[in-house]
């Protein structure tokens, strides 16, 4: 059975921004940028001229008590767009850590855009120019849009069914952020389950890092920024198709997040998490500072999961025996398919 959820589901302590089962592939690519701007070219692993089923841009912005960024320009493959002209899903996120005065910081905003109209076709690489913004107020110098990630979906009926879930953080910045009771349905346990994180402003010293835990198991620490980045942070870039997980940029397909040495210029934000689920679809995921936070510095935006699905698409044929007028309703019944608990 085919299904899509978009804008949005609350799954107890997080937001399932997008959930889909379809025959095809997904490429999850981007970079951290903090207060910086610039241009990077990223591998998609698609063939040139691939028509996309869906394309999303997810980013974040530091906000203050009295100021929030509201204008952002981005160029994708040399075409420039003002993102604020497009519908967005925004999540205001507070801050529970100490902010030394007179700084005006007060958490961040998670932002997601459907950019399928902007990017209907992709090649083997995508170039993103994260165009610098106007300077914010002096007491909120870090109040910038940052950390663009693309979720690119290709539909191909010759490929096996996959599941893709894009999870956005809606919890305040704190010493520990808890994502509880997320159920990943219809997993084929013979294949990898990919998790790519999305963070920003990460790395610099022993206390400025994240420790990650899934279902009670610590699966790594990151205190450094990616090799492919503008300014500090770690993300997990990957491509998933037909049970094959491919790490992109500096990310690998092992079962751990890695980058424990500050300022090493290496961070692996991708992990195959299938062993931590133990054939159980329940996912509990904790993201903690590696030491007690003395001020707001890191931003955890969310994560994306991809896996081979046991959900079977059903072909449905209906006779043209009913006409509906505006405002009328029709009750439908269907049988067949596969029932999942």
How would you explain this protein's 3D organization?
- By secondary structure, the protein is mainly β.
- It has one domain (3-308).
- Helices cover 1% and strands 44% of the residues.
- It has one helix and 22 strands.
- It has one helix at residues 274-277; strands at 3-10, 15-30, 38-43, 50-51, 54-64, 73-76, 79-82, 88-93, 105-114, 121-122, 125-130, 145-155, 161-168, 176-183, 193-200, 210-214, 217-222, 238-241, 244-247, 270-272, 282-289, 299-308.
- The strands form four sheets. Strands 1, 2, 5, 8, 9, 12, 13, 15, 18, 19, 20 and 22 form a twelve-stranded antiparallel β-sheet that branches.
- 44% of the residues are buried.
- The model is unreliable at 1-12, 314-326 and 336-341 (pLDDT under 50).
């Amino acid at each position: 059975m085919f299904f899509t959820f978009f804008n949005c589901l609350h799954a107890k302590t997080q937001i399932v921004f997008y959930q889909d089962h379809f025959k095809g592939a997904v490429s999850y690519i981007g970079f951290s940028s903090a207060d910086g701007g610039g241009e990077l070219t990223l591998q998609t692993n698609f063939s040139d001229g691939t028509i996309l089923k869906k394309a999303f841009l997810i980013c974040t912005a530091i906000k203050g008590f009295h100021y929030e960024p509201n204008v952002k320009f981005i160029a994708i493959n040399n075409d420039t767009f003002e993102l604020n002209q497009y519908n967005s899903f925004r999540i205001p996120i507070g801050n529970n850590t100490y902010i030394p005065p007179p700084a005006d910081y007060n958490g961040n905003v998670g932002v997601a855009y459907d950019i399928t109209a902007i990017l209907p076709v992709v090649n083997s690489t995508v170039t993103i120019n994260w165009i610098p913004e106007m300077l914010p107020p002096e007491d909120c110098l870090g109040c910038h849009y940052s950390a663009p990630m693309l979720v690119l979906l290709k539909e191909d009926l010759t490929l096996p069914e996959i599941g893709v879930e894009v999870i956005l953080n809606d919890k305040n910045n704190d010493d520990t952020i808890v994502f509880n009771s997320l159920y990943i349905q219809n997993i084929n346990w013979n294949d990898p389950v990919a998790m790519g994180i999305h963070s920003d402003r990460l790395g610099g010293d022993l206390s400025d890092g994240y420790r990650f835990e899934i279902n009670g198991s610590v699966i790594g620490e990151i205190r450094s920024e990616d090799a492919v980045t503008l300014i500090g942070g770690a993300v997990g870039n990957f491509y998933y198709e037909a049970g094959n997980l491919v790490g992109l940029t500096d990310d690998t397909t092992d079962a751990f997040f890695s980058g424990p040495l500050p300022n090493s210029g290496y961070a692996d934000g991708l992990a195959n998490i299938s062993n931590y689920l133990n054939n159980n679809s329940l996912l509990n995921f904790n993201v903690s500072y590696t030491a007690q936070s003395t001020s707001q510095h890191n931003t955890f935006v969310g994560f994306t999961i991809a896996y081979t699905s046991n959900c079977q698409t059903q072909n449905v044929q209906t006779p043209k025996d009913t006409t509906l007028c505006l405002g009328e309703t029709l009750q439908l019944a269907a049988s067949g398919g596969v029932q999942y608990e």
